Amino acid sequence: MNQDQWKNKNAVITGAASGLGNALAQKLLTAGATVALFDLDKSALEQQFRNQKNCVAYSIDVTNFEEVKKAVDDFANKNSKIDILVNCAAITGKTNVKSHEVDLENFDRVMAINVRGSLNTSKAVLPYMLEQAYGRILHVASIAGKDGNAGMLAYSSSKAAVIGMAKVQGKEYAESGITVNALAPAVIKTKMVEDLPDKQVKYMTDKIPMKRCGTLDEFVGMASFIVSEENSFSTGFTYDLSGGRAVY
Question: Residue 248: how many CA atoms within 13 Å on its side-chain side?
């Protein structure tokens, strides 16, 4: 992969204060990209990226379209274009509960952040990508969106919706120079995973033939390729990062 390509790329990454979004943002910044960092926790963004140049931190709620659009417009006006969007912002919500026990308010919150958030950001950046006839959008889904994890109805449903969104958007913009794909990791070792009950993590890792969590480096490697210039003939697709759990 041509590493020089990142030096003239402008990217928006949600959930950049921690976990997957943080790791990918650090990678792209190190490679020379200019990055808009979206997260509710601006103090965490400023602490995590205090030594990095070419980045702008935005404290926003991705479920609020007006906030998202204002930040996207500001970043685009400062940098003239937006080449890449990666949606990492997500929550698991309450887990280890069966469907009849689901807290409906919690379900709605998970869907709002994981699904509406990805729609809001893509809706805001797509006009800029259409204007330049180029763009790379990656919605981070989950293996739970493919297979469904028992006890995680809200999360599994939200990630299935994200996969569906990537399929629709991939087809809608296939002739525009814009690709839209999803990535379905199994368990990646992040703080979000560490906060889950041990029983829930064991349930998920037991399903992985490699019998381990994925690493942040493995996620960054795959995500970087998906949003690279070289990945130009793949759209509407859901990439696997599951240690052999998903083979379809």
Answer: 2
d(CA 102, CA 93): 10
Instruction: Mention every residue, 6+ apart, whose C-beta is less than 8 A from residue 153.
Output: 97, 99, 102, 107
Return the CATH fold of 3-237: Rossmann fold (3.40.50)
Provide the total of helices (H) and of strands (E) in the chain, helices listed first. 10, 7
Q: Which of 58, 128, 134, 155 is catalytic?
A: 155
The C-alpha angle 22, 121, 130, rounded to 5 degrees, equals 115
Residues 44, 49, 50, 53, Cα dihedral to 10°: -150
Q: Can you tell me the distance from the alpha carbon of 89 to that of 180, in angstroms, rounded to the nearest whole number?
A: 17
Query: In which residue are the tokens 């790329």 written?
Result: 9
Distance separating alpha carbons of residues 19 and 139, to the nearest angstrom: 15
Q: Summarize pLDDT for 25-56 with one digit per residue, the tens.
A: 999 999 999 999 999 998 999 898 988 889 99
Sheet holding 178-185, edge to edge: 55-59, 34-39, 10-14, 84-87, 135-140, 178-185, 238-241
Q: Is 155 tagged catalytic?
A: yes
> Rounded to whole angstroms, how far apart are CA atoms 82 and 72?
9
Q: Quick check: pTM over 0.90?
A: yes
Q: Are strands 178-185 and 238-241 parallel, antiparallel or unpaired?
A: parallel
8 A C-beta contact, residue 129 and residue 89: no
